[in-house]
Amino acid sequence: MSMHEKLNRIGTIYIPVTDVDRSQKWYVNHLGAELKHLDEEKAIVDLAGHSFFLIHSNVGQTTNFVDKKGGKHFILTFEVDGEKALTDLHEDFKRRKMPVGEIEDRGHAGNNFVFADPDGNLFDVWSVLSPVFKQAQN
How many Cα atoms sit within 13 Å of 24 on the Cβ side? Predict the structure, then answer.
């Protein structure tokens, strides 16, 4: 049995938030997530083909980590289909007054930018859509 046969996909991603209701509204209104469940301890939203659990947590808890160079780092990258989709999304996020970084060339195919949710959880966006995902969509 190969590793690919053991782990098939990511089912759930857990994000710490300080205000569950505010966060679920933000994810729905700003990222187009679909609310599936809401209670005092968590919200479950579907986004980009995954289930995100927004978990009521203490102030200061985020998914971010510090890399070897001392910079704050995101835990995941969303993909969009091409440079135009990336720049359009970047402009939309700026219009919405979301915390968003500049579009960057990181020395590999495509470009990226980083954005944050209301609790400071960082996420990356990349302009290259996975060939496997593209093939599965056809």
Answer: 21
